[in-house]
Amino acid sequence: MPTSTFYNLEEEKRKQIFEACVEEFAEHTFSEASINQIIKSAGISRGSFYQYFADKEDCYMYLLGEIAKEKMALFKDIVEKDPQDTVFDEYENMLDQAIRWIDVKPQYYQIGIRMDMDDSEFIQRLLKGNQAGLDYFASLIRRDQQRGIIRKDIDPAVLTDMLFSINRSALMSFFYNRDFQGMKKQLHQILDIIRKGSTTEGNHV
Fold it and tell me: Whose C-alpha in 43, 59, 107, 137 is 20 to 30 A from the C-alpha of 191?
């Protein structure tokens, strides 16, 4: 995490450094990103950079942390939990959030795309941390199987992987075309097909 020296900077200076990091990591993978370019864009010296961050990994973790804070603030009031919701309802809410997020913060989403393109050990460790989200949806699928909504012969891990693989592929495609309405329409159609094929009755949910 950043040092106390960094947090003692004026807010405008911290913002300038953050924006320089966003710009660099949105355009390049973590492995390819340049500290030289970050300090150039931020208007700081290399010595100052190392007064603020231990290394590039430390800088990157700071960036992800700040992005996570913004994302939580943006979506904190969007999803309303309903005890009757199925995993598909929650997934649909997630899709709507993701599409809104991409529209509002395209550079942040692009940083995520760059992560998927980076096979470095550091990034792979971070990506493994996303397993918690997959496990959560798999648990919702098992819950809905017990409720008699989803067929019991379906492997929760397979259905989870299918949902997230389609989500990642479609979001990326429409992102580059900047077609958010088309993205939303197609993803909801795909989800409806999966929903009807996975539930005990095609029109049960």
Answer: 107
Among 4, 29, 20, which Cα is nearest to 120's? 29
Please, are residues 25 and 114 in contact by the beta-carbon 8 Å criterion?
Answer: yes
Residues 6+ apart with CB under 8 A from 99: 171, 180, 183, 184, 187
Measured distance CA(41)–CA(88) in Å, rounded: 43
Q: Could you give the domains of the chain?
A: 4-66 (1.10.10.60), 78-198 (1.10.357)
CA distances from 203 to 5, 56, 159, 181, 192 (A): 58, 50, 18, 25, 10
The pTM score is: 0.78
pLDDT per position as a tens digit, 86-120: 888 888 887 777 778 888 888 998 998 899 889 99
Q: Print burial letters for 179-195: b (CB count within 10 Å at least 16), e (below 16).
A: eeeebbeebeebbeebb
